[in-house]
Structures are given as C-alpha cells and as structure tokens.
Amino acid sequence: LRFQFSNSFKQQDMFQNLINKIKNLMMQKIIFLLAIILNLFEDINGLPYNFTHRANLTVYVDGQNRGDLAIGLYGHEAPKAVMNFLSQCESRKEHKNLENIFKLNLTDIENKFSFTNKPIYKIYDTHMQFGDYFSERNNWRGNITIFGGSYYSEINDYETEIGALAQERLEENGHVGSEYTIFLKKASFDGRQSLWHVFGVVYQNLDLLKYLFYTASENDGTPQRNIKIMNCKITQYK
User: Fold this and answer.
1) If you average pLDDT over residues 22-26, what whole number do you get?
2) Are 45 and 216 a contacting pair, CB within 8 Å?
3) Which keywords appear in this protein's UniProt record, sorted alphabetically (predicted)?
4) Can you tell me the distance from the alpha carbon of 232 to that of 89, in angstroms, rounded to the nearest whole number?
C-alpha cells in the first residue's frame, strides 16, 4: 500500500512538472509573438506613440560619429512647433520669406537655418540646448522661425521627462521660437501652462543622450568638447 501511494505521488509530481513545462513553453511563445507584433506595429506606424514624424539627428563629438538621437514628434498636438523644427532639420528652400523679412540671403538661410554641421551649444545638469543659430541677430531668443518671428505657443498635455524635446515659453507673452531643449530630468515647473512646451521625445539611443549630458561643460553651460549635429533625416508617418 505504501508503495502504491509513493508511486501515485511520483506520478502527480511528474504530471505537475509536465504541466509547468507546457505553461512555460506557451508563455515563451506568447512573448515571442507579442515581440513580433510590436515590431510589425513599429514598422508600420513608427512607434506605439502618437508620433507623426521621426527625426534622426546624427551627433559628432570631436569629429567622431557617436550615433543618432531618434526623436519622435507630436505633429497632431503641436503642428507649428513640429513644422518649424522639420524646416530647420531639412533646410528646405521655401525659406524665401525669411530672406525678405530679415534681409538674409538664401545662402545664409540654407546654411544657418538648419541643424546640419551646427553645435549643441549649451549643456546643463538638467538639459541641453540647440537650434538658435541667429543669436547675433535676436539676443539668444531664437525668434527667427518659418512664421517670420516668434509665435504663440501651442498647448498640450505632454510634460517634461527624460529625452523630452521642448521650447521655452517667453514669460512676457508665451511665445516660442527656434531654440530647442532636450531634458535629462523632469523640470521642476511643468504642465500645460508651464515654462516648457513639449512637442517630441528622444525614444532611441538614450545612452548617447546621457553621454552628452556627462560631457564636461564650463560654468555657463558651454561644452568643452566640439559637439555638432552633422545630419538630420526625417521619416513621416501617416
């Protein structure tokens, strides 16, 4: 009788082990299928976020290619900000209106109103800044845009986070321009009516972003190394 009970327990253990193995195998298959589905979803729609565009910014440090910052842009919620950002990214020739408004020639616009071969000129503990390449004309306000000058900031529910791409609102009128900020830490004052208008986020290669933030800078935020955005490639999603 004892032998029969012993065999019965062993059979139960074997059966339970078999069930557990089947469960583990099924779970692995489910995870594998989910990964495939997510990859397909990313290929079709860019990412499982509300992105309308992706901007890949190729970053060089001291002449060496350090990789791309992949930035997803919220074109539905911030169409003006995204349009202006993309115009700088691609340096399109329809910047002729800037030539008339600011008395710049087309060569200046093609060379300056673009991220290509331009520096990331400020790196602080919490964020870095780039984009204001007409500083000598507008006192570091970044007021030159494809809309002529600064424009009233759009409002959305996105907040600062690691990798958030934002514009700083002017306190006196809520306007924004063409200077951009990428965050490594959440801003202390955040929200719909805060100082920052978020219209995108770095979603790939955050290690490169952290590397840039740990690059030694002067007291005023000026990097001690030569950091440039050498190329910008745009992908548009439907």
Assistant:
1) 69
2) no
3) Isomerase
4) 6
